[in-house]
Amino acid sequence: MMHPADGPRFDQLDRGEYERMLELECHLRELRTGYRRACPELALPGEPRPEYLPGIPMMARLAIKAAELDMAESSVRRVLKDYEDRGLLALIDNRRLTA
Question: What is the tally of structural domains in the chain?
Fold first, then answer.
């Protein structure tokens, strides 16, 4: 069980926030690996998209993903780093937690 000081819990999320968080995770996995499910064995139809093929530099991938998400590249970098450091909990938008 998490201590309140550890941050938000998944059971505090409403369905919309939970789905938003999972969708963002898919975007981050695509950014890193080219696959929304993170590996070729679980590839969705059409993956990897040309923008995320192996060999495409990470800076180019960041620019493309930032445009897709309508976010600044620096924000995408920050979210990706937080996700790499803290996992799925890093993607929770604390402003949207239910009481």
Answer: 1
**CA nearest to 14, candidates 89, 93, 84:** 93
Q: Is 5 a member of any domain? A: no
Give 32-91 pLDDT, tens digit per residue. Answer: 999 999 999 999 999 999 999 999 999 999 999 999 999 999 999 999 999 999 888 888
Query: Domain of 47?
Result: 10-96
CB 29 within 8 A of CB 22: no
In three-state secondary structure terms, 81 is helix
Short-list 77, 79, 99, CA closest to 20: 79
Q: Is 4 a member of any domain?
A: no
